[in-house]
Amino acid sequence: MKFTQSGGTIVTSAGSGEEGGFAITIADTGIGMSPEELLIAMEPFGQIQRRRRGRLEGTGLGLPIARRIAEMHGGALEIESTPGKGTTARLLLPAGRIAPARERLSGD
């Protein structure tokens, strides 16, 4: 999202995933990444050589941490990206990690 320029679009959504799971999706019209850049970005401390305001921003941990958290819950992080068009990331959690509504409402 940080590489979406002024006037670009960022859309977030959340809802039911496959087989009763839960999905969070974030899509932007940012600079996007090539398949090779995406492989780098998914590795801890992997940074793509893109600069803003003369310096490289971030630590290269956001995507690897999000992927690992999803995996720890039995889910996945899926990313689709096209240079010059943007990126869509989906955090998918299985139904077994979602509390039934009555438990969420009662705090049990």
Query: Which sequence of SSEs, written as H and E, runs from N to C?
Result: EEHHEEH
Based on secondary structure, the structural category is alpha+beta
Q: Main beta sheet: strand number and arrangement?
A: 4 strands, antiparallel
Helix count equals: 3
Strand order of the largest sheet: 1-2-4-3
Average pLDDT, rounded to a whole number, is: 85
Name of the CATH architecture of one domain:
2-Layer Sandwich
**N-end to C-end Cα span:** 35 Å
The CATH C-level class name of one domain? Alpha Beta
Fourth-level CATH superfamily of one domain: Histidine kinase-like ATPase, C-terminal domain
What name does CATH use for the topology of one domain? Heat Shock Protein 90
Helical residue percent band: 10-25%
- Which regions are unreliable across 5 or more consecutive residues at pLDDT < 50? 51-55
Percent of residues in beta strands? 25-35%
What can you see in these coordinates?
The chain contains 3 helices and 4 strands; from the N terminus they run ββααββα. It has a domain at 1-27 and 47-92: Heat Shock Protein 90. The chain is globular. Strand 1 (10-16) and strand 2 form a beta hairpin. Strands 1-2-4-3 form a 4-stranded antiparallel β-sheet, with helices on one face. By secondary structure, the protein is of the alpha+beta class.
Quick rundown:
By secondary structure, the chain is an alpha+beta fold. The protein contains 3 helices and 4 strands, in the order ββααββα.
Topology:
Blueprint: E1 10-16, E2 22-28, H1 35-41, H2 62-72, E3 76-82, E4 86-93, H3 101-106
Antiparallel strand pairs: 1-2, 2-4, 3-4
